[in-house]
Design goal:
Layout (H helix, E strand, L loop, with lengths): L3 E7 L5 H8 L5 E3 L5 H11 L12 H15 L8 E5 L7 H7 L5 E5 L2 H14 L16 H9 L4 H13 L7 E5 H6 L1 H12 L16 H6 L23 H6 L17 E2 L1
Parallel strand pairs: 1-3, 1-4, 2-3, 4-5, 5-6
EC number: 2.8.2.-
Organism: Rhodanobacter lycopersici
Protein name: Sulfotransferase
Length: about 270
Amino acid sequence: MERRFHFISGLPRSGSTLLSAILSQNPRFYAGMSGPLGGAFNTLLGDLSGRNEYSVFITDEQRKRMLKGLFGNYYGSEYEAEVVFDTNRVWCTRMRHLKELFPQGKVIACVRHVSWIIDSVEQLIRKNAFQPSSIFNYQPGGTVYSRAEGLANGDGMVGYAYNALKEAFYGQDTANLMLLRYETLVSDPARAIAAVYDFIGERVYPHDFENIRYQAEEFDLRAGTPGLHTIGKKVAVRERTSVLPPDVFRRFENDVFWLDPALNPHHVRVI
């Protein structure tokens, strides 16, 4: 049976690691944290463009075969799963490419209130005060205001992903796109995961939401951000007070376009 590919994308700190950990309980599935394929895809796409003097010998069909081959070669015999979920925020900017290469592939974009995303990053930075983070290029300076600004600008970790999400949401290739709210995933994981299975056309697997396992300690430590991909053993809502100054938190309060049906012209499924 040919391996099937789906894609996890969307906003950072919005449940993609938790979603991957849950899906990986299914022995037929493989899902992990963000990997190298998104960057490799963009690099190869650029190398096959007109800036390469040999591009006159390359047809679109050859480009498609080479780009699709990245997935088959990366997820080779080391991975036994029939269904692979590749995670990368770049996939929201590649909806047309994915539609052409994987017509049956689905893109699940994880979303969360942007204020709480900024808050989540700031909490990690403060928790690891003696370890400058790769999120800010290992620079130890700055304030909560400059960090929020850096995250939210168009090239920042949050701003780029947010703009990519809007590109996918308002684009013309939304048939294979679903938005999964972090709030739904942690408060009602059974409903959230059932919706994912329905969206990808698979039979529901009896997941154990009381015993979630995922490890990425080595990666997080090297990134100077221990806890970046840490998840609790049990899926649950964890109430707490924001560590952000009130004006920073309020700045992003209205950046939740997916909650307004009037702003969903293509009727993208939002769970």
